[in-house]
Write a structure and sequence with these properties.
With 549 residues, the chain is of the alpha+beta class. The chain has 15 helices and 18 strands. The radius of gyration is 28 Å and the shape is elongated.
């Protein structure tokens, strides 16, 4: 077993050079926030009577409670000078707090105070719970307590002791972080074919997330003797189920589909792009590719406005409510003003269009004109209830599972109807949306069989599924997805063009379903879906003409 280690305690030098904090990435799950409840006063002190220090604590000097909370807040916020200044030993406290946090690779701790109490010698004791996120491993949780003493000037300070940082920290014992070397996991596809970063370069970001034989990164925090370095105990272990096993991770990926996805990424013309292909009947991921190959796994962790591919969900909401049918006439003008001007791609217009025509030509103004047919939260409710979007998915690798917030105003509601505003998704989500529209039933996407499933959804009515299939097929035969029309099979699809920001080219999207496979692709700054994502998915589907076994 190979270990990387770091230590902390008074006198600890700079953090080891191997230690790296993960980069801040778009689309990661929400970061851990400090939860100490604070009420700011001038000079950084905090008011009493809030959180764990309620009115029944009034017999205690409120300044003691305020000082405890301020100390915890400064520590949690990496304001070590400020925290140390609130103690009876500022120089030592600053050194220990800083080395404890950096030496153990802790970032953004959560420190939650409990109710204060007096001790027998006139001091005050404030218990607290510490949740310490250790970068790349997990959260170390423990309890400790702050002793506070009144000073000669009448103020209160934290009575500095090593044990307040952690009860086992002392003059003779300190902590050491050990990380196991899990940089080269063995991963296979569904049939046992080895998957490596050399053979499948765009899988590199995915393979790194399988480190540790399927158990994820592994490590431990040890209590060690300060002089000898001997281990006296283990405070925390990190590593999921299966940690320590050399057994390969068997994924749901299909080597043939993955190879085709690798080749298809070249059609993105060097732009950032990603795609996902999965089975319609059970959500198993067949291929997952990113371009460039290095970097984060944008296919499952990216956060993008899905643009007009989201009209699959919007159409479902309207059809479920009986607000439209395929044959309902919904005019498609060039422009529509709802707080701001919305328009169609290339300012196209289709007077007297049916809803089917609006879908196949991706008419923004028609969809926006129907916003009054849906309640404020209704689009998000449909996305969650029928498509699983916004619920917590357990895919087998870290994922962003989508967001459809309730619109703040009519302008934002108009934008959400066409997959803009604050609606967020990625290729994994949109491949799943496509599969659900085709089958009527949501299946949580997975890349490792046996993943936990906590989602709860309802099937779409058959009449809705029939109309969605018909409109998606028409989008290929007579609409904006004609780039796929020459391929064999009853392919259904939806294009998307998503605005990013003023002055930047739009992102291009395309989702499609053929047989038992649903695919989704986004090309950043691709301008249009058919023109950028279209060639990528055309290449993919051409290379693998049949369904997976």
């Amino acid at each position: 077993m190979t270990h990387l280690s770091s230590t902390h305690g008074p006198g600890l030098g700079p953090a080891p050079s191997y230690r790296r904090r993960p980069p801040r990435r778009t689309g990661r799950k929400a970061a851990v926030a400090v939860t100490v409840v604070l009420a700011a006063l001038a000079g950084g002190a905090y008011a009493a009577g809030i959180g764990p220090f309620g009115q029944d604590d009034e017999p205690l000097d409120p300044a003691a409670a305020a000082q405890a909370r301020a100390f915890l807040a400064d520590w949690a916020g990496d304001r070590f000078d400020g925290a140390a200044a609130r103690t009876t030993s500022p120089v030592t406290a600053r050194q220990v707090l800083r080395s404890f946090t950096s030496g153990l690779d802790i970032s953004r701790p959560r420190l939650t105070a409990a109710r204060a109490a007096r001790t027998g010698d006139g001091a005050v004791r404030v218990p607290f719970t510490a949740k310490m996120p250790v970068s790349g491993l997990g959260t170390w949780t423990y309890t400790s307590q702050l002793p506070l003493r009144k000073q000669e000037n009448g103020g209160w300070k934290v009575d500095w002791k090593l044990s307040l940082v952690h009860p086992h920290l002392s003059e003779s014992a300190k902590f050491r972080l050990e990380r196991e070397d899990t940089s080269a996991p063995k991963v296979t596809d569904r049939a046992g074919t080895s998957l490596t970063g050399d053979a499948y370069p765009s899988l590199q970001a995915v393979l790194a997330q399988f480190a540790g034989g399927g158990g994820g990164p592994r490590g431990a925090i040890r209590l060690v003797d300060r002089v000898t370095g001997d281990v006296e105990g283990t405070e925390a272990r990190f590593g999921g189920k299966g940690a320590g096993s050399d057994k390969p991770v068997t994924t749901t990926l299909d080597a043939s589909w993955q190879a085709a996805a690798e080749k298809a990424m070249a059609r993105a013309d060097g732009k950032n792009a990603s795609l996902v292909a999965l089975r319609v009947d059970n959500g198993e991921v067949l291929a997952m590719a990113n371009s460039p190959a290095t970097g984060f796994n944008r296919a499952v962790s990216g956060t993008y406005a899905p643009g007009s591919t989201w009209k699959i969900v919007t159409s479902s909401a309207l059809l479920l409510k009986g607000a439209v049918t395929q044959d309902t006439v919904v005019d498609c003008p060039k422009h529509l003003v709802v707080g701001k001007e919305f328009h169609n791609v290339e300012t196209s217009e289709f007077p007297g269009a049916t809803f089917r025509k609006d879908f196949t030509e991706s008419c923004n103004t028609a969809f926006i004109s129907l916003r009054g047919k849906l309640g404020g939260s209704e689009l998000g409710d449909v996305a969650r209830t029928y498509f699983g979007v916004g619920q917590e998915w357990h895919v087998g690798v870290p994922s962003y599972d989508g967001s459809v917030p309730v619109p703040k105003d009519e302008t934002e509601k108009a934008a959400s109807m066409i997959g803009q505003g604050r609606v967020q998704a990625n290729p994994l989500i949109m491949a799943s949306v496509t599969a659900t529209a085709a089958s009527g039933t949501f299946h949580q996407p997975v890349i490792v069989r046996g993943a936990e499933n906590t989602t709860q959804t309802r099937p779409l009515p058959g009449s809705v599924v029939t109309q969605l299939r018909s409109m998606m097929r028409a989008t290929v035969t007579e609409g904006t997805a004609r780039v796929l029309a020459d391929l064999p099979g009853e392919i259904g699809a939806k294009t998307g063009t998503a605005e990013v920001s003023e002055g930047e080219p739009n992102n291009g999207w395309l989702v499609a379903r053929r047989g038992n496979v649903a695919v989704a692709c986004v090309v950043e700054q691709g301008v249009t879906g058919g023109g950028s994502a279209g060639p990528v998915l055309h290449s993919l589907l051409s290379a693998v003409p049949g369904d997976p076994s």
